[in-house]
Amino acid sequence: MSSFVIFLLTLLSIFPFRQCHGRLFTFEMHHRFSETVKKWSLQKLAAPLQNWPVKGSLQYYTQLANHDRLLHGRRLFKFDGPLTFSDGNSTFRISSLGFLHYTTVTLGTPGLKFLVALDTGSDLFWVPCECGRCASTDDPTLYSSDIELSIYSLNGSSTSKKVTCSDSLCTDRNNCLSSNNHCPYSVSYVSSETSTSGILVDDILHLRTDDSEEKKFVQARVIFGCGQEQTGSFLDVAAPNGLFGLGLEKVSVPSILSQEGFMADSFSMCFGSDGAGRISFGDKGSFDQEETPFNINPLHPTYNISVDQIRVGTTVVDSGFTALFDTGTSFTYIADLSYTKLSESFHSQVRDKRRPPDPRIPFEYCYDMSPDENTSLIPSLSLTMSGGGQLAVNDPIIVISTQNQLMYCLAIVKSDALNIIGQNFMTGYRFVFDREKIILGWKKFDCYDIEKIDHFPSQPVNTTHVPPAFAVVPGNDNAERSHERTTTTRQSSFASSVYQTCYLNLINCFLASLILLLL
User: Would you say which domain of life the source belongs to (predicted)?
Assistant: First the structure.
């Protein structure tokens, strides 16, 4: 018997215990019009805010629509009008800034804080650095004293290293004279002729584990852009302190952290109704979440999904399309014919009087709301994704307060070309971008209760399993986010080691239990 126990112990030494999904790092994030950011600005200015829109007002939704138009250009509109960062995982909205959600990251030694915009539609992480042309970071009329804006300096960090042209993540080798040169980068975005350029740098990103009672600080080396020259909306405070790309390419921080073994190749974003939320790196979701596969374009992978069916109230609209799932877009945009079928079905079930078009807002289907209006009479809206996953939209309408009365609008915009599932369809959910399984997961969630996050491997609620598609449908549905990168990176990173470690854990648990029974 003792020899058998020794044999089992030997097996355990061969198959060491490892976590399935590594550590969880979580950051807070805030919307640009959240109450938290409003308080920051009030503290700074010590005076009433002049241009802060009241939530639910016409100005509020006009500003968000203008944000989308600047971000994606004219292709949207028919009209011309869990690891976490060391400072936490909050995200927030800032009125004067161009992107929707921001968080604070710490770089270098000693650590320097940067307020970065979060962007699932691009890959590179960059910060202003040794600026030749950057946005102002010290204008008291734009930023509160609580908002820390920094400029990165290669000489100011003892752990910084310039990336050479021989590095595998250097994609702009055509501009290198030799392999020992410093690697240049240049990223262009379609929106407002916006771009950033500089050199790639290797330095420490300060993280903190968020999956245990004892928080541990982690120093992870990442590659990011030393942004020396910015153009377009980056000079007009769109992302004055940097941009945190969350895309699928190898140069993105999620890809680097996964490749280096810090976490599983997955992250989640949770969107609260008040503009606050969380982003958690290494989060694989929960066993009871809904799921749908991403449509992966091998040349330029993006978070593109397929919608098979739409339910509006009691009517099923059989009109499928593919769409970019974009956390950085305020509203949802759908091209014809799907838009017409959906909106006409909604209109046929509404009892209220339709209002004439208003050139200040992009919504076509708006209605008067009587004081005794019961919102339960407004048709519900849900999407059936590829694979059968159901996304019930919590807020298919927006309520706009005018001087005389209330009105509400179907919060979907008719698009010229792009189909985009925007953030207004994401409120009240935690969305998991699982880049290992190549799926999008979602579940209704309280974004402020991090203890509810389940770190077990996820199994979808929908029983129809559809393998990930690797060719996006051509035509309008083959819509890439308009501020896509124009660099030449063409390889995506999808790790598979996580499944091997899970099986090893099962073996270990079985062997350990058997030893205890025998002793």
Answer: Eukaryota
Burial of 492-505, coded b for 16+ CB within 10 Å and e otherwise, reads bbeeeebeebeebb
Q: Which helix (H) or strand (E) holds 13?
A: helix 2-14
What the block records as the tokens of 413 is 């915009």
pTM of the model: 0.74
Q: Are 201 and 129 in contact (CB under 8 A)?
A: yes
| Res. 33: pLDDT tops 50 | yes
Cα separation, 123 vs 246, in Å, equals: 5
CB burial string 119-145: b at 16+ within 10 A, e below: bbbbbbbbbbbbbeebbebeeeebbbe
Annotated catalytic residues are: 119, 326
- Specify whether the CB–CB gap between 245 and 127 falls below 8 A: no
Q: Could you give the CA distance from residue 55 to residue 60 in angstroms, rounded to a whole number?
A: 6
What is the rounded CA–CA span in Å between residue 398 and residue 499? 42
Question: How far apart (Å, rounded) are the C-alpha atoms in residues 290 and 431?
Answer: 10
Would you put residue 22 in left (φ > 0), alpha (ψ -120 to 50) or beta? left
Residue 358 scores a pLDDT above 80:
yes
